[in-house]
Amino acid sequence: MITASLHVIFALLAFVYGGKDKPVLSEEIKEIIQTVHDECVGKTGVSEEDITNCESGIFKEDVKLKCYMFCLLEEAGLVNDDGTVDYEMFTSLIPEEYFDRATKMIFSCKELDTPDKDKCERAFEVHKCSYEKDPDFYFLF
What is the annotated signal peptide range for this record (predicted)? Predict the structure, then answer.
């Protein structure tokens, strides 16, 4: 697990890279994001195209993409031993200037993260919901 990736927690569900409503990330955070991205692409075999398409609201029903989304959370140290996402930890690391908007998006979708579903499916549903709640603020790296 990449300890430094805890600093990218905001980037994991607020998912943003530049743009009209999106926060600007420091070079350090972008480097951490790239490291986590590369690790999860390597683990899952997801295509870059499928990742990029999510920013346009195209969420391909593909196990590789779904598990990539879970991997991001896991690599950031946001998954408990039982495989559930620690949303309290997640939101505690969101920068103040994005806190209200990001937590509103996160908490309006976290009910989709239920233990009756596969961990990858849960991550996928939360990501898809996050895009639907605030498409101008969403990105998947």
Answer: 1-18
The distance from CA 66 to its chain's CA centroid, rounded to whole angstroms, is: 11
Nearest to 73 by CA among 25, 135, 130, 137: 130
Phi/psi of residue 125, each to 5°?
Answer: -65, -40
The sign of the CA dihedral 105, 124, 55, 22 is positive
For 7-56, write each residue's pLDDT tens digit.
444 444 444 443 446 666 778 878 888 999 999 999 999 999 999 999 89
Instruction: Supply the pTM of this predicted model.
Output: 0.83
- Alpha-helix residue ranges (DSSP H) falling in the chain: 9-13, 27-44, 48-54, 63-75, 87-92, 96-107, 119-133
Domain annotation covers residue 8? no
Question: Is 10 within the bounds of a domain?
Answer: no
Does any domain span residue 3? no
| Structural domain for 67, as ranges | 22-133
Q: Which spans in 6-55 are helix H?
A: 9-13, 27-44, 48-54
